[in-house]
Design a protein that fits this description.
It is a single chain. Helix 1 crosses helix 3. The chain contains 4 helices and no strands. The chain is elongated. The chain has one domain. By secondary structure, the chain is mostly helical.
Length: 79
């Protein structure tokens, strides 16, 4: 999977994916939406968090193919 230390982009993406997974687990088990509870008074910020979690999941699935990530994570395909 990833070799060595994760680049900052992957680290942030991993944290956001974990937040999303935790949130869905709480929704499924207890009907409690942690993101809505914490950011319910700011619906636009709540929506941005959901979009960032989704984009982070896509990044984790497909990987980041920039030069910096290739050097830090080794996830980019060599040509």
């Amino acid at each position: 999977m990833m070799k060595g230390k994760m680049c900052p982009v992957h680290m942030v993406a991993l944290v956001l994916v974990l937040v999303g997974a935790l949130n869905w687990g709480l929704v499924g088990l207890f009907g409690f939406n942690l993101v809505s509870y914490l950011l319910g008074s700011w619906p636009m910020v709540e929506r941005v968090v959901y979009v960032l979690v989704g984009l982070s999941a896509v990044l984790m699935v497909f990987g980041c193919h920039c030069k910096k990530c290739d050097e830090a994570c080794g996830t980019a395909q060599k040509m």
